[in-house]
Amino acid sequence: MLFLIALHFHNNQTSSISELVCNTLGMKCQVKANALSRIRHIFTQEIFTEQVIASHAISIPVTESLNGDMAGYLPIHIIFQLLKSRVFSRYKVPIKDWIYKQMCSSCLPLHPLLPLLIESYVNSIIVKGIKSDNVNQAISEKELLEVFDAPANRKDISGRQSPTIILSEKKDVGCQILVLYYLLLFEDTLLNNMKSI
């Protein structure tokens, strides 16, 4: 939760901070913007710089069986916000493994933030940012193909047979839909940006 508050402070989203505080406390309260200015300075300059947030965010565990029925603030919210603001690219923090694990850990019905996360990720791979020439690494062909392997043949990222990767059918379909969406979006974004690459 502190990560999310720090993220909102970095993006100067005081209304989101107010909403988060109210939801956490379970009551309506007035949070004045001028009262947040000192706290904002402490959060953004001393405790949670963008680089600290980015480097720690990739160690946040993915949400197992992430689906559309889940509510509240989840790790995907933090990663999405950082991807959208290109913090991972700016500080050269690799995010590919986290994205891939979250896609593989998702099931039906899909969480509504997953397509937006994938769009931001694909854009961070192909489209260079204004402030940074660094781009994120794409998911490898081998990793993408593993999602469509029969469960008995499925292996983990290191290539070993892994019973923990064997997913339920509902989870497999969700993961496969996300990977297919990633592939189609990647190709479309690549074709639309050929002139600028």
UniProtKB/TrEMBL annotation:
Its main location: nucleus. Keywords: Nucleus. InterPro entries: Int2_metazoa, INTS2. GO terms for cellular component: integrator complex. It holds the Pfam family INTS2. It is found in: Nucleus. This is Uncharacterized protein. It comes from Lottia gigantea (Giant owl limpet).
